[in-house]
Every structure is written in C-alpha cells, then in structure tokens.
C-alpha cells in the first residue's frame, strides 16, 4: 500500500505554504457569519473562497472556470486550500455567486487586516503617500451601447438616480438635454462631401450623456491619450513611498476627473492610517488632481500637497499688477479693474471677477490687443489664489522636482505590476461594486507578495575592547606607579637636574 501525505510533498519554502502560515484567516468567519444560514446545504467556506480568489490574482487568472481547473492540478494550492488530492473543488458558478453575496465591507476588512500586518513588519511609514489612477477595461463592449431614451413627465431623471441600474435596464435622460446634445453632434459632423460630390459615411459619436451599456450600466465611456475609446472603470491607488505597499484602492467612475475623486480617497486613506497610528504629512499626485478645493483641504489638514498646478494657471497676468490691499488689478495705462462679484466656472469652481469701466476701455489705445471684442476687460481669478501660488512655488523648487520623480518611481510601477501580473487589465465582473471588490483583491494580493518578500535586516554587533583613557585620577595613579617602579638613584639625578619624573 502506497503511503501519501500532501504536506510532505510540498516544500517548506513554497509560496502558498508560507502564505498559509503568514496570515490568520479565521477572522473571516466572524465577518461573514451573518451571511450564512444554519439550515440547508453547507455553503462554500468563506476562507476557501477568499483563498481561491486571491490565488487567481497571484496566478494572473481572471476566469473562475480556469482558476478552478488550475487549482486541481497543483499540490501546493490544494494544501493551501485545505483540500486533499481526491476531494473535489468548488464549482466555478459557486465562486461567482459567493463573490456577489459578500458585501464590499468584507473585502475591505481583509485589505485592512493585511495592511496592518505590513505596518507591524515595518513596511509602511505613512507620512508620504503617492496617488494616481488608471483606467481598467469593463466587461462590456463599446459596440453594444444603446442610446438613452427621453424621460417622460413621470419618468426617472438621470441626475436623480441613486441606485445602481440592473443589467439590461433602459436608462433615460432629460429630453431637453438629449436634444441639445443631438444638435451639437449634427453641427460637428456636418455634411461633408468628397472631391466628386460623394457623401462620406458619418462617424458614430458616443457620449455618456446620450449612450449607455445595457450589460454594465455603471461602465463609462472614456478615452486616454494614445488609446482607443472604451468602456472603463477608474482604479485609484494610494501607495506608501517607504516600501511601495498599497495603502488604499477604490473603484471610481471613469467619466469624472481625478480631482473629483480625491476627497473620498483622502478621507478613507486618513481613516486607515489613523487606525494604525500613522500620521499623514505629504501627498504626491500629478496635475490631474490639482484644483483649489483639494489644495485648501490638504492645507487645512496640515498636509503638504506636492501636486503640480494645472497648465492654464499663471501666477502673474502680463500687463496687470495686483494690489492686495485694495483687491484690484491695474493695467499699464493706470486704469483699475475692481473686484465685482463671485462666480462659478463650467466645472463648478468658484472664482472672483474683476473688470474695468466701459468708458476706460473704450478710450484705451490698447483695446485692440487687451479686449478686442469685449466692451471692457475682464479678469477671472480663483478664490484659492494663495493656495495655488504656494503649490506653484513648491512645484518650481528642487524639492518639488525630487517629489515628482519619487511619485513616478513609486506608484507607476505598482500600476504596471497590477495590470500585467495581477489580472487587472480587464474586469471579469460587472457593476461598480464588483469592480471595487476586484480591485481590493488585487491590492491584497500585491501586499501579500510584499510581506512574503520582506526579510528583516539582521544587525551584527561585536564588542571591541578599547584601552582605558588616562584622564583625571587614573592619570595620577599611573604616574605614582611609574615613580614606584623607578630606581632611587635615577630619581635623585632627575631632582638635581630639575627634570620632572
């Protein structure tokens, strides 16, 4: 009879054997206890489920079917899951249904548990965090998008929708908005004719305001410079600059600017660092996160914002001098542009408006260059001018350039690893909640790899016997000993020659 033990076939240095000993998975039972019933057929063990999906990220397998087939062929994975060779693994639809059953809070609890272990091992400093985002392809096709229907008098309003629409649901938009967008698209398309009068085929213009995906309504149409337009989600990351550990991850809608996602990211990041008694003092990000409210929010929290200002910002306006005491601009002709009112721009940001009188501008010899079409010269400046100027000065300094290189060398390699080696190139689930769970699992797998690779530095100490210094009382004692050893005739001769002993 052949004797076979699975634990004896897997070496001690195996990745999954070390991973099973590294993390205490029992806390998942308490987190998921309310989701299971005490009657009926036994469900999939929560520890087995999370080990399976984490292993899919570590093995770069995004398909549940391929994941289960792959696990059945690996002895080390079977030992990690707690299965014997002759036991049947869970069915792949069960893995998918369990993923939908568990709320995102359980996945976040797992992320916090692994992050706390990284903190305990000294892998996280916490004082400086690098933030960035990248689009991730949704599990939907851009060719299958449909046009939104106009909402009736009692129909739902798109801006008032709070719940996530189900797959296959028909989305609506205000009728006047759809008419305005259709008119603008027809104007941009035009009626182009070729050299021989042949009419070219008009391109199909897609927008999140007019189209939606019936398979994944949460996916958004977005485009990245140099890439084709696609249905995407946005993965926002915060990475600690000490050892490159991911400190926060979240799934965002891809049709909004990065600067609008920073407040939610910052509040979650602060809460996690505060729970681990780590202070956050500096935030590194690119110009996509630059706006006045973000600068003001970071300064109010006593953090240094190493975020380059947007390219359109100018610290000085050529030809106009600003007087802080009177809050007015003065042109080269000596005419004042006084503060008139507060207003908002297209993005909803507040700014201050200054303008001169019509009489001064109509009689100005420089009107053809200063305000050729307007009746008077008008200047708009953001209400966060002081915060913008401080950020601009930090950006121009040498330290600002070093921080820029630090951000690029910290967060961008992490995104490269997640996309190419941890299965984050494309979503295998649908919906915003599913995308958030997938990104959390990917970040947990990445941090677990960091924990496994960490080797604490051993300090080698050695004791060296140094000669005792001849100072103070020790010096006098040595001199007495030396005199005691000196012969009497030698002492007499030195006294006669006034030579000290």
From TrEMBL:
Transmembrane segments: none annotated. Pfam families: DDE_Tnp_1_6 (PF13751), DUF772 (PF05598). It comes from the Bacteria. Residues 330-452 form the Transposase DDE domain. Residues 182-202 are annotated as: Disordered. Residues 5-100 form the Transposase InsH N-terminal domain. InterPro entries: IS1182_transpos (IPR047629), Tnp_DDE_dom (IPR025668), Transposase_InsH_N (IPR008490). This is IS1182 family transposase. It comes from Hymenobacter ruricola.
């Amino acid at each position: 009879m052949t004797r076979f033990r699975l634990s004896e076939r897997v070496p001690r240095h195996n990745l999954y054997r070390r991973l099973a000993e590294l993390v205490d998975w029992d806390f998942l039972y308490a987190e998921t206890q309310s989701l299971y019933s005490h009657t009926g057929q036994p469900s999939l063990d929560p520890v087995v489920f999370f080990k399976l999906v984490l292993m899919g990220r570590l093995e770069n397998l995004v398909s549940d079917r391929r994941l289960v087939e792959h696990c059945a062929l690996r002895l080390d994975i079977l030992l990690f899951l707690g299965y014997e060779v002759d036991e049947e693994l869970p069915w792949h639809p069960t893995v998918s249904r369990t993923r939908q059953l568990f709320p995102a809070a359980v996945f976040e609890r797992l992320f916090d548990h692994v992050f706390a272990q990284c903190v305990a091992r000294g892998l996280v400093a916490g004082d400086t965090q690098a933030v960035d985002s990248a689009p991730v392809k949704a599990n939907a096709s851009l060719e299958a998008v449909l046009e939104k229907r106009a909402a009736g008098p009692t129909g739902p309003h798109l801006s008032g929708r709070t719940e996530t629409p189900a797959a296959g649901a028909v989305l609506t938009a205000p009728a006047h908005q759809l008419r305005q967008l259709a008119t603008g698209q027809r104007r941009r398309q035009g009626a182009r004719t070729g050299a021989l009068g042949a009419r070219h085929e008009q391109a199909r213009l897609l927008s999140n305001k007019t189209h939606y995906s019936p398979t994944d309504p949460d996916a958004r149409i977005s485009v990245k410079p140099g890439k084709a337009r696609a249905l995407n989600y946005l993965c926002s990351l915060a990475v600690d600059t000490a050892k490159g550990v991911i400190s926060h991850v979240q799934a965002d809608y891809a049709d909004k600017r990065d600067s609008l996602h920073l407040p939610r990211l910052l509040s979650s990041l602060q809460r996690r660092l505060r729970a681990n008694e780590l202070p956050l003092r500096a935030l590194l990000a690119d110009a996509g996160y630059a706006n006045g409210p973000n600068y003001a929010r970071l300064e109010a929290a006593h953090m240094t914002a190493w975020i380059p200002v947007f390219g359109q910002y100018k610290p000085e306006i050529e030809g106009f001098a600003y007087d802080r005491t009177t809050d007015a601009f003065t042109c080269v002709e000596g005419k004042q542009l006084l503060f008139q009112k507060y207003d908002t721009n297209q993005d909803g940001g507040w700014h201050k408006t200054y303008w001169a009188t019509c009489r001064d501008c109509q009689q100005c010899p420089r009107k053809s260059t200063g305000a050729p079409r307007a009746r008077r010269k008008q200047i708009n400046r953001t209400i966060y001018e002081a915060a913008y100027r401080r950020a601009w000065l930090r950006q121009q300094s040498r330290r600002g350039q070093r921080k820029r290189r630090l951000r690029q060398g910290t967060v961008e390699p992490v995104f490269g690893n997640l996309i190419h080696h941890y299965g984050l190139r494309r979503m295998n689930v649908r919906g915003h909640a599913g995308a958030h769970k997938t990104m959390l699992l990917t970040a947990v797998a990445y941090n677990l790899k960091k924990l496994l690779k960490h080797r604490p530095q051993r300090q080698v100490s050695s004791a060296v016997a140094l000669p005792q210094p001849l100072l103070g009382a020790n010096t006098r004692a040595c001199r007495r000993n030396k005199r005691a050893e000196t012969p009497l005739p030698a002492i007499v001769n030195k006294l006669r020659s006034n030579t000290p002993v």
